[in-house]
Amino acid sequence: MSCKFFHLKYFPLFFVFFVVSDVIAQQVPFTVEIEPVIAGPLPKMHSFAFAQSGSKWLFVGGRTNGLHGFSTNDSFDVIYASDVITVIDTATWSWYSSPLGVLPTAVADPLRTTNMQYTRIGDYLYLTGGFGWDSIANGFRTFPTLTAIHIDNMINAVVYGTPIALNIRQIYDTNFRISGGEMQQMNGECFLFFGHNFSGRYSDPPQPTFTQVYSPQIKRFTINDDGINLSVSNFTFLTDTNNFHRRDLNVGNVVHPDGTFGWCAYSGVFRKDCNMPYLWPINFDPTNGAVVDSSFSQTMNNYTCAMEPLFDSVQKTMYTILFGGESQYEFNPVTQQLILDSLVPFVSDISVLVHDQTGQWSQLPLQLQMPGLQGSNMKFVPNTFVPSYSNEVVKLRELSGRVLVGYLVGGIVAVVPNGHPASWANDTVYRVWISPDQVLLAVNDLNPLGQVNVFPNPANNQVTIRTNFNGAVAISLLDAQGRVLRSENRFERKDVIFN
Fold first, then answer.
1. How far apart are the first and last CA of the chain?
2. Residue pLDDT, tens place only, 267-301
3. Alpha helices for 407-482 (secondary structure H)
4. Which H or E element spans position 119?
5. How far is residue 86's CA from residue 57's CA, in Å, rounded to a whole number?
6. Residue in 451, 242, 477, 457 with CA at minimum distance from that of residue 364
7. 440, burial (CB in 10 Å: exposed 0-12, middle 13-18, buried 19+)
8. Which uninterrupted H or E stretch holds 109?
9. N or C: which end of the chain has fewer CB within 10 A?
10. Do 157 and 172 touch, CB atoms closer than 8 A?
């Protein structure tokens, strides 16, 4: 696509010039840095459940190899299922583990699974579902399990080598037969997003060796737990068979412009009409339900990856950093272009999803790249000392200088963008630093035009220009030689569409 120049102004004095090519010409008001922790080697793992307490991290389940195989002979090999509960002490970067083999088989098997959903409520880590080997049924399946683990007691048991069984309780409910979804909680109420029920051995192309049923629902329920008795109640279901038919996605915490909390579901696979990622996000909160925004296409970081949310309390804008993973489009930092790859390869790209107070989206690739093709099924672990809201969204305006906001842990590392054999589980932890750009923050505060959004991006046949300024705006479309191809005046908050 040849570059087009849009010239916008509001009368009588203020002028803004910007370039629209294959990447939106905007900047985020902060910089990101990544550096490895010199320790190790640490355990190799990905697709695990996680909790932290003080300086210690707790890991349950997941896998110790790279990308799963694509035939019935090598997919999800049992020997690579994590057979231990692991603790990493970040004060010393030492680690400890306890084998799951000491537990009864019916208890241990659900804890060896991959892609469980999990959330923390108080002292407990709650885990649901997950895909793995059922030793009793002698086959692969998604487990209908809810597990409660006392976090501090389990950490102590692993570190000091005492029995782990006393810290685990399980119940069964078919509503939890889900893997590859996401689990969140607010005020003690739980929400299980999407996912699927997969049974049998994976193969590609599909053979009659497995069954797969997507869960096109957000399941809402309450966990009742007095420390001894464990149960669930008050199940309700929000169903959308078209937009909720997704798994292996990110569901991130957000702060709304009015200060209330919610979540946003980003991308995920696979669409009902083709084996490609969903590109449109879904906003959800307990009061307003789900809102699908099909006006925006998330072209990058479409698979489960590490993410870090920040909120600008002055501009009322959410920023969500997505670290690597797998992507329908790959960003070339040299040419500044997005390149389509329908195989949805492993990428090293880091992007920022921007959602402003008017509800408009943009996705901005950073020049910074991951240290290799990694990020898929990686976990971002927040630094609990960073100024944050109670839902772990960072307060951008309260950061000062270069701040350690958290860590990147685990995930899959690949040698080539597309290919199964050349990948493995990551054993390096990375520190993530963020430095707020006070100049850009100040410019944003003073800019009377507000944020300008140009979408979709990339575009083939038409582009929409949208600002959150209420006054008169003149928009001109110029070619690469500066010749005006089209001009239009806008006198109200209204989209302008150029073919």
1. 13
2. 999 999 999 999 999 999 999 999 999 999 999 99
3. 438-446
4. strand 117-121
5. 8
6. 457
7. middle
8. helix 105-111
9. C
10. no
